[in-house]
Design a protein that fits this description.
homodimer, two-stranded antiparallel sheet, 6 helices, 76% helix, 3% strand, DNA-binding
Chain lengths: 139, 139
DNA sequence: ATTAAATTGTAGTCGAGGCTACAATTCTGT
DNA sequence: ACAGAATTGTAGCCTCGACTACAATTTAAT
């Protein structure tokens, strides 16, 4: 009975995470594309994620509401300071997870895919452990 | 350019995973509740996940379509052979991830939460590496 | 046995994320 | 400069997972 309460919390958390995952993926992608192509357009994101430009459009609007992105009609998308900070945190976290998977012997291709899925579900504490492990392996 | 194709694949995969995650959570929960209470009812699942019984109801219908579950109106929910196999695989995988997190030094509470989020995104290969690591730590 | 409570089912709504089709704007090449 | 291509925006639809409100069935208690 009381177990139900304990159980339902993680599950709720998992679902709520889904709503932030996309935002994180977007700022990460915007940062990457911007640094590569000088600016980031809707089409670039659409190709990157393999979705229609319409989907990207609405998502960018949402990111703008959340203050992560700034853009004007028919103009490229830029990250705000807040968005950049989030993107950096995400990139670092992504890299940590990826390097960690490599360090424990996962092959690069599988590591790339799994890191993509795992990164959003790693707490700061677990992340620290990943770092420690990766360092230990490198000695 | 060709990078776009490479990039979009993992992201597509991530999204598709979401649709299977819930199914996996459900069979896991049904297995757990069934073994504890002798049978598993809609209400139990609703409490377990902290959602309404209606949500559970439709989800159970979907699981039935997928042949993972068998049930009749106003009757408890039972796993099919296929559903049981999936539940077992999920439980094992969950346990591996959880024990692995403990082994690398994550505290039990954080490990429980993170395992919940991570388990669905771990490829068989990465899982093997987790097992190997956990064993290594125990020596 | 009948009523009250618990459980399950159904109808209808909502937001998120996806799409197509079409309109508007900006960019480009000649 | 201007037509055609590329890009972006808008309208409207779909599916899925969630909900409330209400109807139906089963279980339990007196």
């Amino acid at each position: 009975m009381t177990e139900h309460a304990k159980q339902s919390l993680p599950h709720r958390r998992t679902r709520h995470d889904h709503s932030t995952e996309l935002a994180e993926d977007y700022v990460e992608a915007i940062a990457e594309i911007s640094s590569r192509d000088r600016n980031c357009r809707i089409v670039d994101l659409a190709k990157y994620f393999g979705v229609s430009h319409v989907t990207v459009n609405r998502m960018v609007g949402r990111l703008q509401n959340e203050g992560l992105v700034s853009t004007e009609p028919y103009k490229p998308v830029r990250l705000t300071a807040k968005g950049s900070r989030l993107a950096n945190r995400c990139r670092e976290r992504h890299e940590i997870v990826y390097q960690f998977l490599l360090a424990i012997g996962v092959d690069p291709q599988a590591a790339a895919i799994d890191a993509e899925g795992i990164e959003h579900h790693v707490s700061p504490e677990t992340l620290k452990c990943f770092v420690r492990q990766t360092k230990a392996k490198q000695c």
